[in-house]
């Protein structure tokens, strides 16, 4: 980018899943000048392992992950790693590549928070716009930038788990990624010709030659600048210097559930008590910023197998199921995911085996994100307060029992499997609940810190405008008022697609 250029129509802050969509969509109009700021590196400087689907767990130890941890959780007494991506593509460059809409019931409930126009039917055109679904399933997109589909040949151990699920009475779904079904099936993945497709690959790369799109990497947004109540500029650090870029029309925050809330707080926008505690002036009191932080916790059952598990070729988690723990629910509240490696566990090392992940899809527990100062390089204080609500534990217990029934099925018998962790001596609710609360991990789906709605607790309105201010929107995972009942990335793509439409309106 020409370093003398400092004035733009739109500034997009954060080049992750949502930011790549917005930068690409907004710059489709050649008369609109768009600046994208990303704290991490360009695609070519990300680790090679980004492209290799099976290697994604190794990315957690690289600079492509911000490396956040929660505070010690009341449930376990220990902090929990909460990875998020850094670099063009953001979390889509380090995630596990599952591409699935939440079940439709999860969006319909967004209206409970006052959000208007975000029911599943409203979002459907945006889900479709983002994707070219190779399955050709009904309700799926046919010409979007992302090419998504299930593994052509899932790992045999995962197919055996799928057969076990069906054998034990679960529905075999046709398209578990489409938001309309429950049951078990291979899930769509962001893998094209054996390589990961990030948001930067799908959206940004084809737009990079546009003269009206300006991308600055290794640029950390420090704070937002205002003229009265109008956001007019972003101050950011790059090349060891502080820069200011101005936005004639709007600034849109796409720094993710952690980064966007941090940036609002650093700009004096948030709960007055939190800002005062961080010794900061309150520019605009907005009690919901950083509140409502929630995520999917996941407990793992780890199995040893006598028969060798084939070498993983995909993302490890190629098949999953969405289930209701109680028949009177209006949609699924539990996910089981079959994983073709034995994840690290607290009981014993396993050389050859697999894992069944169990995660409550509609957790009730809510926590918070805070900052300690206006230092843009200081780590946030993250407390999702996992398992604060007993209902979330009960959902996991139901999931563990379901997983064990599948593991006992004839379909898995020929693999000679044995449950290593927690182990079959852990049986009663209390012991299983204690296990889940002590040894769970984050499913890495933090959301909710700038929740959308029309009530006092909401940060953005139904058009994603920060309440009480002008020229400023948030359009990423942070605006999700309650987490969808599946992995979150597909939902963030759809939110960003819709945000682009809202912002392009004259
Ligand atoms: C390890 C892992 C595994 C996951 N697995 C899956 C999965 O398999 N399927 C799924 O659906 N979801 C998965 N997710 C979640 C999913 O990837 C996210 O929900 C989604 O990518 C969030 O998109 P976003 O645009 O809100 O934020 P992000 O994609 O995280 O983008 C935020 C961007 O903003 C940048 N940024 C932050 N602060 C600043 C600042 N101050 N200045 C400039 N830039 C800034 C960041 O560097 C980042 O690039 C996973 C996430 C992780 C981390």
From TrEMBL:
Residue sites binding FAD per the record: 95-98, 477
InterPro entries named in the record: FAD/NAD-bd_sf, GMC_OxRdtase, GMC_OxRdtase_N, GMC_OxRtase_C
PANTHER family: CHOLINE DEHYDROGENASE, MITOCHONDRIAL, GLUCOSE-METHANOL-CHOLINE GMC OXIDOREDUCTASE
Keyword Transmembrane helix: no
Family to which the UniProt record says this protein belongs: Belongs to the GMC oxidoreductase family.
Name listed for the protein in its UniProt record: Choline oxidase
Gene3D superfamilies linked: 3.30.410.40, FAD/NAD(P)-binding domain (3.50.50.60)
Required co-factors: FAD
Residue numbers binding substrate: 443
Organism: Actinacidiphila glaucinigra
Annotated Pfam families: GMC_oxred_C (PF05199), GMC_oxred_N (PF00732)
Assigned keywords, A-Z: FAD, Flavoprotein
């Amino acid at each position: 980018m020409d370093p003398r250029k400092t004035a733009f129509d739109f500034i997009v802050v954060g080049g992750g899943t949502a930011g790549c969509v917005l930068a690409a969509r907004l710059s489709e109009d050649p008369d609109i000048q768009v600046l994208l700021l990303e704290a991490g590196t360009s695609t070519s400087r990300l680790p090679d392992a980004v492209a290799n689907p099976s290697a994604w767990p190794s990315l957690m130890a690289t600079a492509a992950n911000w490396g956040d941890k929660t505070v010690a959780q009341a449930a376990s007494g220990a902090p929990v790693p909460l990875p998020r991506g850094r670099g063009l593509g953001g979390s889509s460059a380090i995630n596990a590549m599952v591409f699935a809409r939440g079940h439709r019931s999860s969006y319909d409930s967004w209206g409970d928070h006052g959000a208007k126009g975000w029911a599943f039917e409203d979002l459907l055109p945006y889900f479709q716009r983002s994707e070219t679904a190779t399955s050709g399933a009904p309700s799926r997109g046919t010409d979007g930038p992302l090419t998504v589909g299930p593994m052509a040949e899932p790992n045999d151990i995962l197919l055996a788990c799928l057969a076990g699920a069906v054998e034990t009475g679960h529905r075999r779904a046709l398209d578990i990624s489409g938001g309309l079904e429950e049951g078990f099936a291979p899930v769509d993945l962001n893998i094209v010709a054996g390589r990961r497709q990030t948001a930067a690959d799908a959206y940004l790369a084809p737009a990079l030659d546009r003269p009206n799109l300006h991308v600055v990497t290794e640029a950390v947004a420090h704070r937002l600048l205002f003229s009265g109540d109008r956001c007019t500029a972003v101050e950011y650090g790059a090349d060891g210097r502080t820069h200011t870029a101005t936005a004639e029309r709007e600034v849109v925050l796409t720094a993710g559930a952690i980064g966007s809330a941090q940036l609002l707080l650093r700009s004096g926008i948030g709960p007055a008590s939190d800002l005062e505690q961080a010794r900061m002036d309150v520019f605009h009191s907005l009690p919901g910023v950083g509140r409502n932080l929630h995520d999917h916790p996941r407990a793992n059952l780890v199995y040893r197998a006598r028969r060798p598990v084939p070498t993983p070729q995909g993302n490890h988690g190629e098949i999953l199921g969405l289930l209701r723990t109680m028949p009177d629910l209006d949609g699924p509240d539990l996910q089981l995911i079959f994983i073709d490696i034995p994840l690290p566990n607290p009981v014993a090392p396993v050389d050859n085996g697999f894992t069944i992940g169990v995660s409550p899809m509609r957790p009730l527990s809510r926590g918070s994100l805070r900052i300690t100062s206006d230092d843009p390089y200081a780590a946030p204080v993250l407390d999702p307060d996992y398992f604060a609500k007993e209902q979330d534990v009960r959902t996991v217990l139901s999931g563990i029992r379901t997983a064990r029934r599948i593991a006992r099925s004839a379909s898995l018998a020929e693999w000679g499997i044995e449950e290593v962790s927690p182990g079959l001596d852990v049986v009663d609710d209390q012991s299983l609940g204690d296990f889940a609360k002590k040894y769970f991990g984050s499913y890495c789906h933090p959301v909710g810190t700038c929740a959308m709605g029309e009530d006092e607790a909401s940060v953005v309105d139904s058009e994603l405008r920060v309440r009480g201010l002008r020229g400023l929107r948030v359009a990423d995972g942070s605006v999700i008022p309650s987490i969808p009942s599946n992995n979150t990335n597909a939902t963030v793509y759809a939110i960003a697609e819709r945000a682009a439409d809202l912002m392009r309106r004259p």
